[in-house]
């Protein structure tokens, strides 16, 4: 979104005012400041206490050993060193990447296809949308509780379906191989409505003339999709990708805590879950803060990389 | 934003375009058939978890643990819902509603007021403060989770409503940004006329700025409510006692307890979904607009 600065002409002219003007301006500034304090005050206090200060304080903490009960002790870079030397770190990092990529890439593709299908569903579009948006009503926890039950080895529906197709049943959530795919599938399902909605909004931005022109030229539905929709929807695709990644890196906690608790044998232990355990079960606040900051750096670098890289594939109209 | 439901199909045209080739009608029907099949499969994937939840929620344990699984409960145990409500506890439902409604009201008020200050009041250091706000929007919540908890500990707010609610209200930076953008697009002439009439900032805010932003405010509030109702991690960290628990915590506990009756657990999940489902059926449009609005973040 474009950032507009609301400088009224008078505001910029006042800069060059005379001394008398300056006194009048100071009085006006002072009054405006009071009004601003009234309007922004509550917001600003909460922002400073619960957002701005924690950002700084978290960084500070990452250099300390702290368990809330006893005073913090400075340990320098030890927390960061410990993270890189911990034998479970490679597993957790690998899992986090697996989870993020596994959830994000399909979330950039499947919802687009569905949004296009829904747009072409004719008079029943509203009906289909109501069904497809239904997962919106479930929390991550509620969805995970249901899916955990769907994935149950003997009594679950997923395996019942597989058996009908002639496949052997899988012990989804207790399998080193299948636990992560199971969690990923559920995550994609949960986030689907959000991404369909974002894509539907994005599709409306594509001028209809393009399609009409293509139809005159006899372009097939597939060609229209391939050559008009896909390139012109890329700004939305870009946003959906970034948003989903940020969403799963944090929201993955709910799903994993309910479905697998990081198991079996750390097979679904992702960074946010490990941060939670370190901070709130083992009270290693400093170490967990260091982990959180490393995750932040990773996300930040990834975002920058994406912004740089987007020029290659995102088309802004 | 235009409501998506009002949009016209993107791939189709109602113009009288001469059909380029014969046999195209057949192809068109083929495409329509394929679309229908694809939509049906997708709908099944979306609906089956819900139907399975409802089916299980009416079963006793013998049926829930039947092999192979069956769809139709027999006998139908409506009583599971009473048991589920008792086990989750009415207090927990109240807490969740109180938590969510407080966040909606406080965040709605603070973000609109803050947005107004940034958009309409020319005060010293405005841009510096606003840029600080914008900067924190890029910081993922896991970074502030631990230090925010420690701030709550230091304030002595662990296991209190204010400890649960206020840090979440504070996370409405996006809302402040959203309303600022919206207020800046309102016509400047309106504000000039109001100033000439001697209206102060509060009157400008309350008499026309807020009423004019009702659609945005409704959509934003619905999404805030939805997010708060589903929230798990933060309450899990701050809440210690039974009295302050919220629904997702109770569901997670029920689900984690292997000895628990499956039917009752699924009934509890269904109950937890019910308020949002009613809201969704009543205000589907606002859900959609609210989410589409968040797409403007980029």
- CATH-derived topology of the largest domain in chain B: MetI-like fold
State the CATH topology of the largest domain in chain A: MetI-like fold
Looking at how many chains there are and whether they match, the oligomeric state comes to heterodimer
Query: Mind telling me which CATH architecture of the largest domain in chain A this is?
Result: Orthogonal Bundle
Can you walk through the features of this model?
The complex is a heterodimer of chains A (317) and B (298). Chain A is mainly α and 317 residues long. Chain A has 2 domains: 18-56, no CATH class; 80-312, MetI-like fold. Chain A has helices at residues 9-14, 19-61, 78-85, 89-119, 125-132, 140-150, 157-164, 179-204, 208-216, 221-232, 234-259, 271-281, 285-309, and strands at 64-65, 73-74. A two-stranded antiparallel sheet of chain A has the order 1-2. In chain A, helix 4 crosses helix 11, helix 8 packs antiparallel against helix 11 and helix 12 (271-281) packs antiparallel against helix 13 (285-309). The longest helix of chain A is centred in the first third of the chain and has 43 residues, at 19-61. Chain B folds into 2 domains: 23-82; 89-256, MetI-like (MetI-like fold). Helix content of chain B is 71%, strand content 0%. Chain B has 15 helices and no strands. At the A-B interface, helix 2, helix 4, helix 5, helix 6 and helix 7 of A face helix 1, helix 4, helix 5, helix 6 and helix 7 of B.
Short structural description:
The complex is a heterodimer of chains A (317) and B (298). Chain A is built from 13 helices and two strands; from the N terminus they run ααββααααααααααα.
Please describe the topology of this protein.
The complex is a heterodimer of chains A (317) and B (298).
Chain A (H helix, E strand, L loop, with lengths): L8 H6 L4 H43 L2 E2 L7 E2 L3 H8 L3 H31 L5 H8 L7 H11 L6 H8 L14 H26 L3 H9 L4 H12 L1 H26 L11 H11 L3 H25 L8
Antiparallel strand pairs in A: 1-2
Chain B lengths: L23 H34 L3 H4 L14 H10 L1 H31 L5 H12 L3 H14 L6 H10 L2 H12 L3 H9 L4 H12 L1 H17 L2 H6 L8 H10 L5 H21 L1 H11 L4
Helix pairs in contact in B: 1-14, 3-14, 4-7, 4-8, 4-10, 4-11, 11-15, 13-14
